[in-house]
Specification:
By secondary structure, the chain is mainly α. The model has no long low-confidence stretch (mean pLDDT 95). It contains 8 helices and no strands. The protein is globular and about 40 Å long.
């Protein structure tokens, strides 16, 4: 993973594919964190896509990543996740919303 991160933008398609196609959750979550470390617009978009992953652990990794970025473009998805997803994702989505710091999100956190 570190080698791919060092390749930066050129590694984004490979990491995005790994996040979507790898059979094990750990590899997919690791791909999310690697994309976060690259941080380019394409990498951020791939992390946002992971917010809708079928696996809870990958969604948690994505929510953590968009909060750390902070990536305001993820707010609409986070606002849905904070009320509709599994508790672990909801908790991390709420944290990410706070880290992003957009006051428009406050009502969703108060539900």
């Amino acid at each position: 993973v570190d080698t791919l991160v060092r390749h930066g933008e050129a590694a984004v398609p490979t990491l995005a594919d790994a996040r979507r196609l790898a059979s094990d959750v750990e590899t997919r979550a690791a791909a999310v964190f690697a994309l976060h470390r690259i941080g380019s617009p394409a990498a951020r978009a791939a992390v946002r896509d992971a917010l809708a992953d079928r696996e809870l652990d990958v969604r948690v990794a994505a929510a953590r990543s968009v909060g750390l970025a902070p990536d305001a473009a993820a707010l609409p998805t986070l606002l849905r996740a904070v009320v509709n997803d599994q508790p672990a994702v909801r908790r991390q989505a709420a944290t990410a919303i706070e880290q992003i710091g957009d006051p428009v999100a406050v009502p969703a956190l108060l539900k």
